[in-house]
């Protein structure tokens, strides 16, 4: 058992260094993201990621909220659905925290709907489907470049297909040397999550 653990750690470290020191990670992210387009629609679905303990939108959630506001301002959306439940010791759900940001940025409060039960991408899809599955109109899914592949296919598997509206997140920060290691780790972790979702039958490939 000890040897297996050591081998795993060595393989993980070598792979992480490969992702960090070569252009492979940006290439992978580009493949996962697909073309960055700005489709219009009726219902904008935004997936949260994190929040600060004091109830402020987190570092990973902020660009999602920012681009959601831009989508609202430049499109014809009738509703914004924010999906994300409670995380760690936060007293409020991730979706309610992001909803405050969206409302403060000009999106009418009565056009913002929150899904507060999910704690994973799969639950984002399942609980959002329960909430808006019968709503008419074209759905558009907004999340980061790295997350879009798994998110889009998880929603399709749940029976709630949506047009992808990714934005450059990880790829936008890749040229910062001090950011490369954590971004490479995030990329590697996302690939492991995709493999796990595929093994569980939670995504459509």
List keywords for this structure.
205 residues, Rossmann fold, globular, 5 strands, alpha/beta
Write up this protein.
The chain contains eight helices and five strands. The protein has 205 residues and is α/β, with parallel strands linked by helices. The model has no long low-confidence stretch (mean pLDDT 92). It has a five-stranded parallel sheet, sandwiched between helices. It has helices spanning 2-21, 24-33, 61-74, 94-104, 121-132, 145-157, 170-173, 180-200; strands at 43-47, 79-83, 112-115, 139-142, 163-164. The chain is globular and about 55 Å long. It has a single domain (2-200), classed as Rossmann fold (3-Layer(aba) Sandwich).
Write the H/E string, N to C: HHEHEHEHEHEHH
The helix content is: 40-55%
Radius of gyration: 17 Å
Distance between the termini: 34 Å
Question: Structural class of the helices, strands and pairings?
Answer: alpha/beta
The counted number of beta strands is: 5
- Overall shape: it is globular
Q: Largest beta sheet: what is the strand line-up?
A: 3-2-1-4-5
The CATH architecture comes to 3-Layer(aba) Sandwich
CATH topology: Rossmann fold
Number of alpha- plus pi-helical segments:
8
CATH superfamily: HUPs
The low-pLDDT segments are none
Just give the CATH class. Answer: Alpha Beta
Number of domains: 1
Major sheet characteristics: 5 strands, parallel
Q: Per DSSP, what share of the residues sits in E-state strands of 2 or more residues?
A: 5-15%
The residue-averaged pLDDT reads 92
